[in-house]
């Protein structure tokens, strides 16, 4: 499938937000006591692990673009058995965790902006995946977008 300008827009905004996230802004901060530090570290570690495992599971199907790669296959095993976009979940968890750990409202706001972007990017991606994989709409019914569906 051919990439469109939307593909480049989503990826471009995503990388701009990543770059903005790492800017050391200390204007909007809070004292992140022990509880926030522990929650932050746990979210950061789980998010990094989830992201890494998801990337490994996608293997040759990995692309930063929402349009599926030519000749790719639908992965419905591993983390993808429960979540349609575990890489996005891993990124969000990692960034939120670090934001909490560092007491940075700025980093938390950037993470929330990424959540909105990933929501729209994933909706676009799922339209494309449904065109390529006839089984994708059924897969969507069984799995959650960013978190497992409740039983």
UniProtKB/TrEMBL annotation:
Domain of life: Bacteria
Annotated PANTHER family: BLL3993 PROTEIN
EC number: 2.1.1.100, 2.1.1.334
TM ranges: 7-30, 36-58, 104-120
Membrane-related topology note: Multi-pass membrane protein
Subcellular location: Endomembrane system
Species the sequence originates in: Winogradskyella litorisediminis
Protein name: Methyltransferase family protein
Family annotation (InterPro entries): Metal_cation-efflux_comp (IPR052527), Phopholipid_MeTrfase (IPR007318)
GO MF annotations, alphabetized: protein C-terminal S-isoprenylcysteine carboxyl O-methyltransferase activity
BP-aspect Gene Ontology terms: methylation
Keyword set, alphabetical order: Membrane, Methyltransferase, Transferase, Transmembrane, Transmembrane helix
A Pfam family of this chain: PEMT
């Amino acid at each position: 499938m051919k990439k469109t300008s939307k593909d480049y827009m989503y990826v471009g905004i995503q990388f701009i937000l990543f770059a903005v996230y790492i800017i050391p802004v200390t204007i909007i901060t809070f004292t992140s006591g022990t509880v926030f530090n522990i929650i932050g570290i746990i979210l950061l570690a789980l998010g990094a692990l989830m992201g890494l495992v998801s990337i490994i599971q996608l293997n040759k199907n990995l692309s930063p673009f929402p349009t599926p790669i030519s000749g790719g296959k639908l992965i419905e095993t591993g983390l993808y058995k429960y979540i349609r976009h575990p890489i996005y979940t891993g990124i969000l968890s990692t960034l939120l965790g670090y934001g909490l750990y560092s007491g940075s409202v700025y980093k938390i706001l950037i993470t929330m902006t990424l959540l909105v972007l990933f929501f729209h990017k994933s909706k676009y991606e799922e339209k494309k995946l449904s065109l390529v994989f006839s089984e994708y709409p059924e897969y969507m019914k069984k799995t959650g977008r960013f978190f497992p569906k409740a039983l």
